[in-house]
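Sample log: Hypothetical_protein.
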Amino acid sequence: MLHPLLRFQQDASMATSKYCVPTIGCAILGAAQIFICVSGVVRVNGNAPYRYKQGLTSFFCVTLSLGTAFTTVVGSGVG
């Protein structure tokens, strides 16, 4: 079973690739995803050790950012 944050990341990536074809829309959505990523991970892991929390936040944000960047490139090519 996937960690809830990883499942959220997959859902966000699928929604982005399906509905976000214009580059401007992808940029706005990407900024929103990064904000959700940072605030959500820190809130969910408020009781976790600092090193674990920092690692999970970094992994989640990098994965989400790469997914958004890839979608932006694909979307701009299609659009």
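Observation: The mean pLDDT is 62.
Observation: The first helix runs from residue 4 to 19.
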